């Protein structure tokens, strides 16, 4: 009720306005909530997919540059890490030998005549075609395209020097010839270790080449984190060591993104 000569709102009118505003606000919240929630869900899933894609891209890069027939996979007790100090659970291990270059060696008469002899100690050979780049600590490897040969110490030897077209190496009697008369340059081994049980991590390790595939922190050496929030993973090597199958799942806030990829290993140059 208004008094004569006065203007404004009555208490009743204010209460009615507040109630109506509250009803309208509640209705607006109902309509806004779902689009906002959907936006947040899509953003979270995109973030998970980006994490998995980046990790798979790094894996693929390593695999494509690997020495032919050097991919091998296994599973075992997880190594000790800061995320998994107890070293518990089961991890998946993928090991490769990165190759920084390759070339063809002379295995017949002609050229300088410096043939790479097989089965007899040799200290140098002629390179046919372009000379690949070498660096300190590199090793020259000639294999018969078997995984065992890729990791056996008697199929590789330290590089000494280069004076095109000749490569000088530490004396070695290579046990077998390469089917395509090729040599490769290697330096170290690399393992990708997936731990979904405790740490939820994918870690890349680099270390000296071992005959047996390592699974312990003491041997795996230098570590670099590739992805966290890992909830599942698996590695498989098939088709005569020419295909590496990778599955990787990452999760966050009950959302899970799982990606699967098959990478071809170039086993024939």
Q: Explain this structure to me?
A:
- It is a single chain.
- 23% of the residues lie in helices and 37% in strands.
- With 269 residues, the protein is α+β, with helices and mostly antiparallel strands.
- The chain folds into 2 domains: 45-96 and 188-264, no CATH class; 99-186.
- The protein has a 6-stranded antiparallel beta barrel.
- Strand 12 (230-238) and strand 13 (243-252) form a beta hairpin.
Q: What's this model, at a glance?
A:
This protein has 3 helices and 14 strands. The chain is an alpha+beta fold and 269 residues long. The protein folds into 2 domains: 45-96 and 188-264, no CATH class; 99-186.
Chain-wise SSE layout:
Elements: H1 11-64, E1 72-77, E2 90-96, E3 99-105, E4 122-128, E5 139-141, H2 147-151, E6 156-163, E7 166-172, E8 182-186, E9 189-195, E10 201-207, H3 217-220, E11 222-228, E12 230-238, E13 243-252, E14 255-264
Strand and helix order: HEEEEEHEEEEEHEEEE
Using the alpha-carbon principal axes, give the shape: elongated
What is the radius of gyration?
31 Å
Q: How many strand elements?
A: 14
Number of domains: 2
The level of helicity is 10-25%
Low-confidence stretches: none
* Class inferred from helices and paired strands: alpha+beta
Largest sheet: 6 strands, antiparallel, barrel
β content, as a range? 35-45%
Provide mean pLDDT, rounded. 86
Distance, first to last CA: 96 Å
Treating each run of at least 4 consecutive H or I residues as one helix, how many helices?
3
Strand order of the largest sheet: 3-4-7-6-5-8
